[in-house]
């Protein structure tokens, strides 16, 4: 399912795709499904950021989004491998897709998603450390998008 729109905010596409908060998204999912949803969302965010990277007229946004879409894939892969090494192999991922056009709003929503998802994911320190790296990437990308234009 592809969610399109000109403004990706909590009240529009984000709400239809993820719900108003992560807790609702994870309601009723088992741990493997929660991890699969988290990984899929991170990987989708790379594609969304790549589209915004290609379509922006701002050099600083172009560079910030370029770093994000490259690095988030490696972090999602690290999370997936650490999770599967510790728990189970994930065999099924959700097929929902989300989209966005405003990089700052989109990454603010990703920031909230990761913050909310953290409590529903395994609490092992090595897995939480990868989530910390994901959060740092989102935070530093937001800094670049907001203040280096």
- How would a textbook summarize the main sheet? none
Based on Cα principal axes, name the global outline.
elongated
Q: What would the CATH topology be?
A: Ferritin
How much strand?
A: under 5%
Q: What class do helices, strands and sheet pairing give? A: mainly alpha
Describe this structure as you would to a colleague:
The structure is a single chain. 69% of the residues lie in helices and 0% in strands. It has 149 residues and is mostly helical. The protein has a single domain (13-147), classed as Ferritin (Up-down Bundle), CATH 1.20.1260. α3 (31-55) packs antiparallel against α4 and α3 packs antiparallel against α5 (103-118). It is elongated and about 45 Å long.
């Amino acid at each position: 399912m592809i969610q399109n729109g000109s403004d990706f905010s909590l009240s529009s596409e984000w709400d239809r795709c993820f719900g108003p908060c992560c807790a609702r998204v994870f309601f009723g999912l088992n741990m493997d499904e929660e991890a699969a949803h988290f990984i899929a969302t991170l990987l989708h965010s790379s594609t969304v950021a790549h589209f915004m990277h290609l379509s922006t007229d701002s050099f600083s946004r172009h560079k910030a989004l370029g770093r994000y879409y490259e690095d988030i894939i490696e972090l999602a892969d690290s999370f997936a491998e650490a999770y599967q090494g510790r728990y189970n192999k994930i065999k099924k991922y959700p097929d929902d897709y989300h989209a966005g056009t405003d990089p700052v709003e989109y990454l603010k929503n990703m920031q909230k998603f990761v913050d909310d998802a953290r409590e529903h994911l395994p609490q092992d320190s090595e897995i939480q450390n990868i989530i910390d790296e994901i959060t740092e990437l989102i935070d530093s990308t937001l800094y670049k998008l907001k203040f280096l234009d």
